[in-house]
Amino acid sequence: MPKLFTPITFRGMEIKNRIVMSPMCMYSCKEDGIITPFHLTHLASRAVGQVGLIITEATAVQPEGRISVEDLGIWDDIHVEGLKDLNEQIHAYGAKAGIQLAHAGRKAVVDSDIFAPSSFRFNSKSKVPIGMDAEDIERTVEAFRQAARRAKEAAFDVVEIHGAHGYLINQFLSPLANK
Fold first, then answer.
1. What residue spans define the domains of the chain?
2. Do you know which Gene3D superfamilies this protein is assigned to (predicted)?
3. Stretch 103-129: mean pLDDT
4. pTM of the model
5. 22-173 adopts what CATH topology?
6. Per-residue pLDDT reduced to its tens digit, 151-178
7. DSSP string for 91-142
8. Alpha carbon distance 149, 19 (integer Å)
């Protein structure tokens, strides 16, 4: 424990201590994916509490890629302003701000069509996804790229790509989801 409260440097970025808040979905948005006062209070309070790096919840790069319709989004430039306000609050307390960019793939629970590597649903209650073709894949890669650009505009210090837990990137690597 003696190093827990000492700074650490990653790729030239110093974090004031080794306490990291991992991304946790709060399911507190409206369908527009715009950050809410709840997020500002919840995440900024962690900075007040001296967490060194605060990673915002899985944030959807496309509206159809949300885990639920209440998920935070970064698929449009309209999302940047609120996220920038959040990061100003986080930075005011000396913490670094991270964002987890995500796409749920076949695990998405939204009203629109969902997309996955293959047309195999996640479970008996899930929608059957549209199997992605090369154009869909390119569109999604571009969505991640644009989301990373927006994250930079919103003053995030760290960008994490969610490639686990059976979500889209993980689905491409799984013989259960990619047939």
1. 22-173
2. Aldolase class I
3. 96
4. 0.95
5. TIM Barrel (3.20.20)
6. 999 999 999 999 999 999 999 999 999 9
7. HHTT-EEEEEEE--GGG---SS--EESSS--SSTTSPPPEEP-HHHHHHHHH
8. 26
